[in-house]
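Show me a record, fold above all:
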Amino acid sequence: MDKKPVPLVCIFSLLLLVSLCQASSVSRTFSKTTASPLENINVNLTVSITAPQDTYYAIDETYPSGWTVMSTPGDTSQSGHVKFIVLDNAVNTNHTYVIRVPASSGTYTFSGVYMFNTTYPNELAISGQTQVQVTAGCVNSTFYRDSDSDGYGNSSWTILNCTAPAGYVSNSLDCNDSNFNIKPNATEICNGFDDNCDGFIDPGCGGPITVTTGYYDGSTTNFSSINVSRNITGMILEKLGAGKIAFRENISFSQSVNLDSQTNISFNRIYINTTAFQMLNRSATVHIYGLSFVNPVIQKDGSACPSSICTFVSYSGGILIFNVSHFTTYSAAEGGPVCGNLNCETTLGETCSSCPGDCGQCPCPSGQTRCSDGACRTDCGGGGGGGGGGGGGGSACTNGQTRACSIAHKGVCASGTENCTNGVWAGCPTPSSEICNHIDDDCNGITDNGLVCECFIGDTRPCGSNVGECREGTAQCLGGAWAECSGNIKPSSEVCNGKDDDCDGIADNNCTAITSVCQDGLIPEEGCMCGDKFYTLGFCYGGVYSETGPEEFPWITVTIFGVIIILVVTIIIIYKEFHRKGKTQVTWDDILQKYKSSFYKLTGRDYWI
């Protein structure tokens, strides 16, 4: 019997079956499968292409109701869907989108389908992970990096989490997170370091110390040559244009200090925090510059300073000088008129009626004359005659008079002038509730009394972190407390991308996709570590990554084999879809139109132009 030749179509079919043994696919992974309410997670769709027969694809990813897509390179025009499409030259790739977990706990399921040109007309389900468990009751807290494992954290290196991750603690008290021996409560030794994080280096060690006074100027003492073995005689702190402190007792520093941080000399205010700097709680002569009061009085913490603490020295040219026995906050206020000093101080409210010894007697009313007994009458003969000049007694002032509000009022109520109307002074600002603003709003002479001020109106400060992908923002002071950080970039879940997404100082730590080290040869579909990076396509030999593999790879053979496969697939499509329907002449437009309807079904829009 003669052997019949094998038909060419059989050879093509065999080649096609071989090529489809490893079909193209789409697989899903989550950055975490257990999440907290309102947390962001990353969803990764890994597209594995079996080249060269698959050149385009469409993916329709369906996410659960109640979840919110935060960022994605895909199409989100259809609610509840994220879609991706590549129409030509498709290659292995990853499509990642960020989605926010809903507030309700439970188990949520993702689904989705995909189609390659070789899978047409069938839609295949996306493989891989499909469910995320959302657990309630977890509240994120701030934890601090403890790099040296001494139990104390670094305030500039933070992370938000439900519980403290490995290498983090709940406190931020460490002043040197790279040295286990430097931490709060450690024993101070003479080594040039602040061993116990109290802000002082080598106290009592006898070496040179640092006294920071960048804020001060004028006749401020030069501290550059001071060491712990000597007392400072006549130490001076001065701020030009504001005031000066001249200590009358010796001052001895036993440790480095920053005077700028706990002392202040500003307009009409002298302040020392003697809780922090007990060595400065000494007697001194205080100068307050630039005052415009006529008769200033010394105030301690907003109230009149008793003579046992404050002693007046002089007041001339707007400079008030007085002695104090110890330190707190000192200022000055207008003391009001002083009758009997032979000065008619009208700006302070002195008048002929209130201070006749200084301003002289008031003129008699029209039609009356001043009699020998000093009274004003129409007829000075015969004594008393009935009076008539009192003017209603008991009035606080005479109509038409004006005076500075500062004579009788304090705080914001002391600004401007008031007028005498119907015998009563009126017209000064009225008190209001105290707010944290360094101002005496309720006019009781005490600034911000009754408040606990974490900050003051107008204050701002940097917040957040510049570690990794995070960036600092700005917090503003609202109502005496710091508002939530604004404009900062917060930590996100770690993604296998060579970046420190969770801002803990370590790139790709806890990266769930890194499961193994690449073996020599083709990188598997799920990816692996080749050298120090993660790859999902290409080749790895001896820890060295290559897109094309070794030089001896038979590219010519593979290319010829691929061309044959493409021809076989094209012949099958033409035969299956058209020839059996009686169509004898088939064009590329006919084939394209057929695929168009299928991709429109997946994507919800016409991508074919």
